[in-house]
Amino acid sequence: MSKEDPFAFRFDCGAVWLNLLATRGRTFSADPVERLGTPGRLAEWLERCELSPALPPDEDDVDQARKLRETLRALALATVDERPPPADAVAELAAFLAAYDDPVRLVAEDRLRREPPATTARALARVARQAADHMTGSDRLALKSCPERDCRGVFIDPPGRRRWCPSPACASRGRVRALRARRDATASRPNEDHSPAQ
Predict the structure, then answer these.
(1) 149: burial class by Cβ within 10 Å (0-12, 13-18, 19+)?
(2) Is 194 within the bounds of a domain?
(3) What are φ and ψ of residue 156, in 5° steps?
(4) CB 24 within 8 A of CB 143
(5) Is residue 43 part of a domain?
(6) For position 50, which CATH number holds?
(7) What percentage of the chain's residues is helix, strand, coil (to nearest 5)?
(8) Closest Cα partner for 167 from 154, 176, 177?
(9) What digits encode the pLDDT tens for the residues 112-126?
(10) What percent of the chain has pLDDT over 70?
């Protein structure tokens, strides 16, 4: 069995904006994994999301992408936990969206496409709009977060059957912990006396 590459991008969370959250792994651990470390990595992520801008990303764009990611994370976790969103995160997202108007211009090629974004900021604005639409509509009810304390990754789970995020590591750790808890509970139960009554 091959070991999972901790720096590999995740595209299995169910939406582009959720995949942006997954560009930081084990977010709540002492040693989180940053997958957007350079402008080149951000360019690769945008390309794989079909959001390549006309101008390549620079260091400021990397900072902006990370800031947006953490703003969206705070809002997503509040949405999943059904609690009021942090006011500062709401203000940051609203200001970002207001700064980057992005009218839909369609292009007829081999399939229906949108005109590519001019800049990385405009590409990120498309991701932010998707997130805002998702968290403010009924689709928010399909959002779930991983119960692993160091992860808390948010993903779409329409049937409501998935327990962990799509990361095999989280599911593996969670199952091992659950098995140990069951064994400990069984071991700590007093033995029942099955001797016949006198």
Answers:
(1) exposed
(2) no
(3) -95, 130
(4) no
(5) yes
(6) 1.10.3300.10
(7) 45, 10, 45
(8) 154
(9) 999 999 999 999 999
(10) 84
